[in-house]
Design brief:
By secondary structure, this protein is α/β, with parallel strands linked by helices. 37% of the residues lie in helices and 22% in strands. The protein contains 16 helices and 21 strands. The strands form six sheets. Strands 10-11-9-8-7-6-5-2-14 form a nine-stranded mixed β-sheet, sandwiched between helices. It has a three-stranded antiparallel β-sheet with strand order 15-16-17, with helices on one face. Strands 18-20-19 form a three-stranded antiparallel β-sheet. The radius of gyration is 21 Å and the shape is globular.
């Protein structure tokens, strides 16, 4: 694995900086209670009927805690809390549906968690029925579900196929038994392969694997071995994330031995090894951390400049509006962002009171929209035509680079070039893309919380 001599220097200089993943701009830490249920209701009603809309449903329950997890989830060995939550979730869906005189057209649905498939097959079918009663879900709608292969039953796979699910995202993380023990997630290659087979038998052929590097006791060899074993199952896509160790925010992460975690430089070596192995196997790298087979629509969108980035990562979803359902879920509208209450009790109370569960949000300014477009193009294309983007928003492009000391420093370090208003990240420095994106983040230095490491 050949490395440019500047790689280690850049990682030492920028790699320890905690940076957002830029699945939105501005990022969630700047959301505030100044935006609440009133604004959310107004924004939902303002979505044009003819536009295609995305839905996100959060199922925040798991049977056991994976110690690396950074999601909002609750461990429950009993079914009743899950049933109670589903009842509230269905009432929230109905309240949004009733708030409009017409049904919104839905083009994308994503079930995230937690473990969405923790619900029973009949419960999932009923939930899809509530969605169909309140929204216009056409036969071409793309429906994706996150899955824990350790708990998926044959009956649940059948229910997913029956309700029109088109994509499954499987948590794999690592097949190394030493790593699995260290993160409290024992999952064999055989279990994963059986899940893939069950899904495909039910017509769900679009399959994504999630992998993580930077986990305790991981090294380059361990990462390559996991990828080689995963490739045998030939998923359409891989999403490869760096483990974000934030025990101050996620107390269960304190169970991870910090002495077993790799440093920034070693993490980058792991990421590069995974990338090289996937590319050698015929996968195309998509943006910073996704990989897809050449015939996958994600690869096509990347080539055609139509790739997008949202809370699920890189996507072909072009819907301007995203309505989030469930505790902690985030919605996106042309006017801004909204986020539901995170604690399950507060979420349920908001819905029981007959209102929306919005706890906080953010109203976009014209400059926010400009910077959001720049950051999205950088994250998707590793470059951006700053002059063209600024002109489309009615801004003088010099706003983006005049006095931008962080950008100037990155250019001086050879990470990027700026010529004739076009910013381009060098191929050898693409792993630094989040640092480049942060140069256009007006809130970065004052975000007031930790983010995941850049490398």
């Amino acid at each position: 694995m050949m490395e440019h001599p500047m790689t280690k220097t850049l990682i030492e200089k920028y790699g320890e900086t905690r940076l957002p993943r830029y699945t939105s701009y501005p990022t969630a830490p700047v959301f505030s209670p100044k935006v609440g249920p009133t604004e959310c209701a107004e924004w939902i009603n303002a979505v044009p009927s003819e536009e295609s809309t995305s839905l996100y449903l959060h199922i925040p329950f798991c049977r056991s805690m994976c110690w690396y997890c950074g999601c909002h989830t609750t461990i429950s060995e009993r079914d009743q809390p899950i049933l109670d939550y589903l009842d509230v979730l269905q009432r929230e869906i109905a309240s949004v549906g009733e708030a409009r005189q017409d049904k919104l057209n839905v083009g994308e649905i994503h079930f995230g968690g937690g473990t969405p498939t923790i619900v029973k097959p009949e419960e999932f079918i009923a939930l899809m029925g509530v969605l169909s009663s309140n929204f216009a879900i056409g036969p071409a709608a793309r429906i994706a579900v996150e899955i824990d292969p350790r708990t998926l039953t044959v009956e649940m796979a059948e229910a997913l196929g029956q309700t029109g699910v088109t994509r499954a995202s499987l948590g794999v993380q690592s097949f190394d038994p030493v790593v699995q023990k260290a993160i409290n997630r024992i999952q064999s290659e055989e279990t994963t392969a059986a899940t893939v087979g069950s899904l495909r038998a039910n017509g769900i052929n679009a399959i994504n694997f999630d992998l993580i590097y930077g986990l305790p006791f991981q090294d380059v060899r361990s990462c390559i071995d996991t990828v080689e074993r995963a490739i045998k199952m030939r998923p359409d896509r891989f999403a490869v994330f760096g483990y974000a160790h934030v025990p101050g925010f996620k107390k269960h992460q304190r169970l991870i031995d910090e002495n077993a975690l790799a440093g920034a430089y070693e993490r980058n070596q792991q990421a590069e090894a995974i990338s090289e192995t996937l590319v050698s196997a015929g996968y195309k790298q998509i943006g910073l951390d996704h990989f897809a087979l050449p015939e996958d629509d994600l690869a096509t969108a990347s080539i055609n400049g139509r790739l997008h980035r949202n809370f699920q990562g890189y996507t072909t979803d072009e819907c301007r509006a995203l309505i989030g359902f469930g505790a902690s879920s985030i919605g996106r509208f042309a006017q801004g962002y909204v986020q539901n209450e995170v604690p399950l009790g507060l979420y349920a109370r908001r819905i029981a009171d007959g209102g929306l569960a919005t706890a906080k949000g953010y109203a976009l300014t014209s400059e926010d929209r400009l910077r959001a477009d720049v950051i999205e193009r950088l994250m998707c294309d590793f470059g951006a035509d700053l002059e063209q983007i600024a002109a489309s928003h009615g801004f003088d492009p010099t706003l983006l680079w005049d006095g931008n000391t962080r950008l100037a420093e990155l250019i001086d370090d050879g990470v990027a070039t700026l010529e004739a208003g076009k910013l381009l990240v060098s191929e050898r420095s693409r792993f630094m893309i989040r640092a480049v994106a942060s140069a256009f983040d007006a809130y970065f230095e004052n975000a007031g919380r930790g983010f995941s490491k850049a490398a």
